TrEMBL record, chain A:
Key words of the record: ATP-binding, Cytoplasm, Ligase, Nucleotide-binding, Purine biosynthesis
Name by which UniProt lists this protein: Phosphoribosylformylglycinamidine synthase subunit PurS
InterPro entries found in the cross-reference section: PurS (IPR003850), PurS-like_sf (IPR036604)
GO cellular component terms, A-Z: cytoplasm
Gene Ontology molecular function: ATP binding; phosphoribosylformylglycinamidine synthase activity
Pfam families given in the database record: PurS
GO BP term (any one): 'de novo' IMP biosynthetic process
Coiled coil ranges: none
Gene source species: Streptomyces rubellomurinus (strain ATCC 31215)
Catalytic activity: N(2)-formyl-N(1)-(5-phospho-beta-D-ribosyl)glycinamide + L-glutamine + ATP + H2O = 2-formamido-N(1)-(5-O-phospho-beta-D-ribosyl)acetamidine + L-glutamate + ADP + phosphate + H(+)
Family per record: Belongs to the PurS family.
Keyword Nucleotide-binding: yes
Enzyme Commission no: 6.3.5.3
Top-rank lineage group of the source organism: Bacteria
Amino acid sequence: MARVVVDVMLKPEILDPQGQAVQRALPRLGFTGIADVRQGKRFELEVEGPVDDAALARIREAAETFLANTVIEDFTVRVEEAAK
Amino acid sequence: MTTRVGVVTFPGSLDDRDAQRAVRLAGAEPVALWHRDKDLHQVDAVVLPGGFSYGDYLRCGAISRFSPVMETVIEQAKLGMPVLGICNGFQVLCESHLLPGALTRNDSLHFVCRDQKLRIENAGTAWTRDYSAGQEIVVPLKNGEGRFVADEHVLDELEAEGRVVARYLDVNPNGSYRDIAGITNAAGNVVGLMPHPEHAVEPLTGPTVEGLGFFTSVLKQLVNA
C-alpha cells in the first residue's frame, strides 16, 4: 500500500501560541539557537490501489474540505516512497 | 401553537441541557435533536450548544460539521431559519462556513472560565432583538479555543456591515481579534457566540439573568414572522 502524507500548518499570519510556548521552552532545556517554532499536524493516509492523479486529486479535496481549515491553515500533499 | 426550538446533542456536547432549559424559561418548547438524525422534527429554530463535540478531534467543530443533522441545519439556515451556535456551536458554524473566520487556541494557552462583560453591538439579529444596541451584559465564558480570527478584509466587512453581534468589555479573555465575542451572517438569522448566555438565565445558578434575552429574542422573531 502506498502512503500519502498530508501536512497541515497554520498560515504564517495566524498566531501559533503552542509553537511559541515550545520555542520558549527550548533554551531552558539547553537547546539554543532556535529562532522560531510553528506547530502543525501530519496525516499519513494508507491508500488502497494506485496513487494516480485521480487518487491524489481526491486526497487534495479531502485535505481542503476536511483535514485542513483553509481559513487558517495551509496544507501540502505528497506521496511517500515505500521503504524497502 | 408553541414555538419549537431544537437543541442538537453531539457526542461530547455539554451544555445541551442548559440550552434546553433556557429555551423553556424563555417560553418556547425545547426539542432534543440527535446528531445522527437528519430530521429537525418541525422546529422553528436551532441551538448548537457548547461542549467538546467528537472530543474536539481534528479541530473544534470539524467533525460535527459533517454530521447528518448539520446537513439539514445548514440547508435550513441558508433558507433563513434562526440558528444560534454557542461556544462549540460557534466553532461548528465557522467550520460549516455559515459564518466567516475561525476560532483558535486562546493566546494565553489557558482554558478561561469567568463571568464576562459584553456589549451587544447589533440588536437587530434574530437572537438579539430583545437587547438594545450598546447594552452591557454579564454572562459566563468558558473556552480553550475561543480566539476569533479572520482576514483583515473579512473583519473590516463584518464591522462595516454591523455583523459584530457582541464584543468583550474590560478584558479580552482569549485574544480575539477586535475583541469579537460573537458575529452574525449577512441575513442576521445565524449567530455565533463564544460566551454562554444559557448559563445566565436564572438567579440561582447564573451571575445574572442577562443571557435570557437571546432566547426570548428568537421567540419574538418567530411569533412576528
